[in-house]
Write a structure and sequence with these properties.
By secondary structure, the chain is mainly α. The chain has one domain. It is about 15% helix and about 5% strand. It has 1 helix and 2 strands. It has one helix at about 20-30; strands at about 1-5, 40. The longest helix has 11 residues, at about 20-30. The radius of gyration is 12 Å and the shape is globular. The relative contact order is 0.26. The model has no long low-confidence stretch (mean pLDDT about 80).
């Protein structure tokens, strides 16, 4: 299952996910038979359209707050 670890860059309204929501989505996928959970994208891009997409690791290499419950 591929999912996003935060907000997306293609919606009109981009809401931050609630605390624990990313972890709940991962367990939901596993509970429905997923063999793996992958995050698009794991690290922020330095430029381009996808630099504003939610990630697990910031452009500077430090984990963002949503990454800690997934570690």
């Amino acid at each position: 299952m591929e999912t996003q670890p935060g907000f997306v860059n293609w919606q009109t309204d981009n809401n931050a996910l609630d605390k624990g929501e990313v972890r709940a989505m991962a367990w939901n996928a596993i509970g429905h038979g997923s063999e793996a959970v992958e995050y698009w994208q794991s690290r922020s891009a330095l430029n381009g359209q996808e630099q504003h997409h939610g990630t697990l690791i910031g452009a500077d290499g430090t984990p963002v707050s949503v990454a800690h419950p997934l570690a």
